[in-house]
Design goal:
about 300 residues, Rossmann fold, Alpha-Beta Plaits, six-stranded mixed sheet, 9 helices, about 30% strand
Length: about 300
Amino acid sequence: MLQLNHVTKNYGNFCAVNDLSFVAEEGKIIGLIGPNGAGKSTTIRMIMNILQPDSGEILFYGKPYTDEDSDLIGYLPEERGLYKKQKVSDMLRYLGSLKGMTQPNIETQIDFWLNKFGLAKWKNEKIDALSKGMSQKIQFISAVMHLPKVIFLDEPFSGLDPVSSDQLLEVIKELKNQGRIILFSTHVMETAEIICDHIIMLNHGKKILDGTLCDIKRQFGSDTITLTCSGNHSFLSSIDAVADVSERGHELNISFKKDSDINALMVEIVNLALQNNCTISSIKVDEPSLHSIFVSIAADTDEKSNSQKSN
């Protein structure tokens, strides 16, 4: 388990990370998300002991981080750093040795991962002969080949085509199922929504959301239902919980009153539709996207921050 307790980092008068606390558990993909400049990379660098926090503590399996723990961490940085004139195998051997791997283990892991990504024939080619996507996969291999317990992935899908992205996503899920702790840093909310079990959302260095995707969507859930049906739907206006009904093409957008029992409302709609010869093709409660939630919260946070400064 990885735990941050009230961690703060300042650069002069600028607060990059402000009183940040969260827990990352084994077998989970934790999304550390937010816009550029939110404090994501600074947070990762503090966890890796590259930077020291000004206050607070970082615990690695219940104990303060030590130099020995660095071999248990894998890091894929946003800015790639492979030596382009080196052969793929030599590059991976060098990076594996930095993580304390034995030579036989290095050779085994190189062959395993290159085969897994379909790159075996490129083993003795130079890095600069690879495409951007291939180089990205080699960088990923270098981050996980020493079988780390904690894996930091900073914008891992950058430069990958859809097929390669799906391939990498499957590998990340395999590592999660093996019990790894995976911190996934991105400013692309749609990607985080697909891959993450838990979301830590930062803005201006401060945590503004912390929870599972399901809990977050429930907390900021929409108050509308989308209904696709044919036949007479005038009965909808007679339902007490319904606030408004509007048509959008072949769909009906039903706004319901706050504190309504949504399950009971949907059952009532279905029952009344049957009684009124209205055939329902689909019915669903509209869920807000992670992107729309972030934009709403970030805007509110910025407004409050600006208000405090003016006062």
